[in-house]
Write a structure and sequence with these properties.
Rossmann fold; 7 strands
C-alpha cells in the first residue's frame, strides 16, 4: 500500500535522528514521488498530512519545517521564520538538529539568505553613489529588519535613512528591539503597504518577499504605488521566487508554504503592463537562481 511505503520511509528517517547529508537526495526524491502521486490522485493531501501527524515531534515548531507548517504567527513567511533562516537557526535538541540542517541546505533558504546580502549590496551601492549626501531607502514588508541591522552594524557612518513599512506589529517590535541602537536612522511604520502614505521620494525602494504572495492584479497595483515613490535617479527592486524553485515540494508538502512564482519574462510583462519602459527594466538573480529581482530605474 502506498501510504505504508511512505510511512516506512519517514519512520526510518525519524528513527535515525533525521536526514543526514547522505540521505538528502533520497528525502528530496521521496517528496517528488509524493507530489507526483498527489497530482495523479493516488494519494491525497489529507492522507499525507495524517502520516506526518504521527511524528509530531519532528514537525512541531521547534524545527524549521514545523515552524513553517504550524505558522504560529498566523501566516506564511512571517518575520520570525525569515530571521531563523537568516541566522540558520538549528534546534538545540540533538534529535531534531538534522531536520534543521536539511532545511537550511535547501535552495530556497539559501536564496533567502542570499536575498539579505543582495539588499546589503544595493544599499552599499547607494552609499557609494551618494557618498557625501543623505540618501533614503524604503523597505516594504520589512519583516525582522535583520538586513538593516547587519548593514548599519558594518557601516556605522552611513548616510542612509531607512523607512520600514510592515503590517505585523510583532515584526515591528522585533525589528525595533534588534535595531535599538540604530533607531535614529530607521523609522518603522505600522501600515498596510497599499495604504502607506508619504511625500518622501527614495533613492531605493525595496521589497524582498512581499510580492511572492500577491496576485498579478495586486502586484501591478503595488508596483505602480511603489514606483511613484522612487526619486529621479533611484530604483525600485522587487524580489520574487522563480517557478523552477527546487525546494517547492518541501515547502508546499511539509510547510504548507505557497508562493506565487514568476519567471523573468513574467516580471518584465507585469512591469510593462504598468506603463514602464522596457529600457528601464532589468531582471537579475541571486547565486542560487531561485530568487529573481525586478529592477526598475527612474
Amino acid at each position: 500500500m502506498q501510504t505504508e511505503r511512505h510511512a516506512n520511509f519517514i519512520r526510518s528517517l525519524v528513527e535515525c535522528g533525521g536526514p543526514a547529508p547522505k540521505d538528502y537526495d533520497a528525502f528530496s526524491g521521496w517528496l517528488q514521488l509524493v507530489a507526483s502521486e498527489i497530482e495523479a490522485g493516488t494519494l491525497t493531501h489529507e492522507q499525507f498530512d495524517g502520516l506526518l501527524s504521527q511524528y509530531e515531534k519532528v514537525f512541531d515548531i521547534r524545527t524549521m519545517q514545523g515552524f513553517a507548517r504550524h505558522k504560529p504567527h498566523g501566516y506564511a513567511g512571517d518575520f520570525e521564520i525569515i530571521d531563523r533562516i537568516y541566522r540558520a537557526h538549528t534546534a538545540p535538541d540533538p534529535s531534531l538538529a538534522n531536520w534543521d540542517r536539511y532545511f537550511h541546505a535547501q535552495h530556497a533558504p539559501k536564496a533567502v539568505r542570499n536575498r539579505k546580502n543582495y539588499f546589503i549590496d544595493l544599499v552599499s551601492a547607494a552609499e557609494r553613489l551618494h557618498r557625501n549626501r543623505t540618501f533614503h531607502v524604503l523597505n516594504l514588508g520589512s519583516g525582522p529588519a535583520r538586513d538593516l541591522y547587519e548593514y548599519i552594524s558594518a557601516n556605522a557612518q552611513t548616510r542612509g535613512l531607512f523607512t520600514c513599512v510592515e503590517q505585523d506589529p510583532r515584526a515591528i517590535d522585533y525589528g525595533r528591539q534588534l535595531c535599538h541602537a540604530y533607531l535614529h536612522l530607521i523609522e518603522f511604520r505600522h501600515a498596510n503597504v497599499f495604504r502607506f502614505r508619504t511625500n518622501q521620494r527614495y533613492e531605493l525602494v525595496w521589497s524582498a518577499g512581499l510580492f511572492d504572495y500577491l496576485s498579478d492584479k495586486a502586484f501591478r497595483a503595488l508596483l505602480r504605488r511603489s514606483f511613484d515613490r522612487v526619486g529621479d535617479g533611484g530604483q525600485l527592486v522587487i524580489g520574487n521566487f522563480a517557478p523552477d524553485n527546487p525546494t517547492k515540494n518541501y515547502m508546499e508538502l511539509i510547510g504548507h508554504w505557497q508562493l506565487t512564482y514568476r519567471s523573468a519574462d513574467q516580471l518584465v510583462t507585469l512591469a510593462r503592463e504598468c506603463g514602464i519602459s522596457s529600457s528601464t527594466i532589468d531582471v537579475r538573480q541571486e547565486p542560487e537562481g531561485v530568487n529573481l529581482f525586478l529592477h526598475i530605474s527612474k
